[in-house]
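sorry to bug you again but im stuck and you know this stuff better than me. what follows is a protein written twice so to speak, once as letters and once as structure tokens for the fold. mainly i need to know what kind of three dimensional shape the backbone takes. anything you notice is useful, everything is just below:
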Amino acid sequence: MNTITQLESADAYCRYLANRHYENFSVTSRILPADVRVHLTRLYAYCRTTDDLGDESGSHALPRLTLWREQVVQSLQEGPDPIHPVLLALRRSIASCDLPPQPLLNLIAANVQDQTVSEYGTWAELWQYCLLSAAPVGRLVLAVWGIREPEAQKLSDDVCIGLQLANFAQDVAVDRMKQRCYLVQADQLDEDPRAAVRSLCDRAERLLVSGHDLEELVPGPCRVQLALYRLGGMAILSTIRGMDYRTYQTRPRLSLATKLSLIPVALTESRRSRGHASPQGAT
């Protein structure tokens, strides 16, 4: 099998991973240039594979994550192409976009932490976890566009952590089956977890507001895509509030119609000039 065919097969596998898993937003859209769609799809496939190794490997999660980290480190160095299709494809994006290695490794570290930490007592503890599990994704996405300014990275951290908090609030029932809980224990006033779910939603919303300022710092197509991420997060928060924060009973989802309805909103908002203030903190 020649190198071109291997890469085509690897990218096909990345697209399969991106299309088969539910998200509150579209990983890529036709608004983006074709090469950017390819890079983002590869990044998503990497994140999905890393999470699946941590979530679906049972008692073998730690050794499998250790092996995965070794393969990632090898793919960052000179030498033969990786065997795993996701790493084979991602290696091209790392070279093309000069992607920083540390965010890739931090995502693995977050999944390693999941194997030993099952709950978080304070907001500060959860924030530190999110710096490993959520913030790296945004920094990698910005790097695809060549954006590395500290201001943009800080705003991206806020947005990505906001998206993850929304996901935590959405996935209470799912995480419980994995014997994990991302509700801040200090926010649980009694046996009813709704107060803690609401606290996550409130913090997520305040952080997602940073998306307005972030979108002002990026080029047009990127601005629309980032708006779609932000709006998807806001939409699931609205859905959670509509069910009175009872995500410990059932996991809410956004319908395809709802996600499609966000596209014209993102296009409209991306054309406007905004002067939104950054959030004063989500504590």
User: Anything to note?
Assistant: The domain at 3-271 is CATH 1.10.600.10 (Farnesyl Diphosphate Synthase). Residues 5 and 75 are 19 Å apart (CA to CA).
